[in-house]
Write a sequence for this structure.
C-alpha cells in the first residue's frame, strides 16, 4: 500500500510495480469527475510515464490552466479507475477514452473509435496466470 501524496492519508494498492508518475486533473483526483480521457505523451523525466488523465467534465479552458493538473503516482489514478491498469504500457501517442455503457467499462482508441482488444491490455505480474 502507498500513501497518497498530500491531502488525506488514504492508501491505495501498488497495482503496477514502479508504475511512475503521471499528470491527472484535479477533477479526477478529487472525484468531481469520472476518468474519461487519457493521452500518452513523451516522458518529461525519469519518473514520468507520460500519461495524462482527464475527467468527463474537464473543458478545454480548464485543461489549459496549469493549476488544474497535479503530478501523481499512476497507481493512485488506477485506484480511482481500475480500467487504467490495462493502459499502462500502451505506446506514446496513444489517445484513449473510457466508455461506460450496458457492456461495462471499456477502453477505446479515440482517433479510430475502436475498442482496445483485451489481449492488448497490460496485466500486472501478480495477476498473470
Amino acid at each position: 500500500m502507498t500513501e497518497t501524496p498530500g491531502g488525506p492519508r488514504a492508501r491505495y494498492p501498488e497495482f503496477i510495480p514502479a508504475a511512475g508518475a503521471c499528470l491527472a486533473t484535479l477533477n479526477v483526483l478529487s472525484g468531481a469527475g469520472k476518468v474519461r480521457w487519457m493521452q500518452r505523451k513523451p516522458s518529461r523525466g525519469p519518473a514520468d510515464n507520460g500519461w495524462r488523465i482527464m475527467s468527463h467534465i474537464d473543458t478545454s479552458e480548464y485543461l489549459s490552466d496549469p493549476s488544474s493538473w497535479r503530478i501523481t503516482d499512476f497507481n493512485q489514478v488506477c485506484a480511482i479507475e481500475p480500467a487504467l491498469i490495462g493502459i499502462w504500457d500502451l505506446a506514446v501517442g496513444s489517445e484513449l477514452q473510457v466508455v461506460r455503457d450496458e457492456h461495462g467499462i471499456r477502453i477505446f482508441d479515440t482517433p479510430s473509435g475502436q475498442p482496445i482488444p483485451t489481449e492488448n491490455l497490460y496485466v500486472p505480474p501478480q495477476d498473470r496466470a
User: Anything to note?
Assistant: Residues 19-123 form one domain. Confidence is low (pLDDT under 50) at residues 1-9. The two ends are 23 Å apart (CA to CA). The first strand starts at residue 2 and ends at 3.
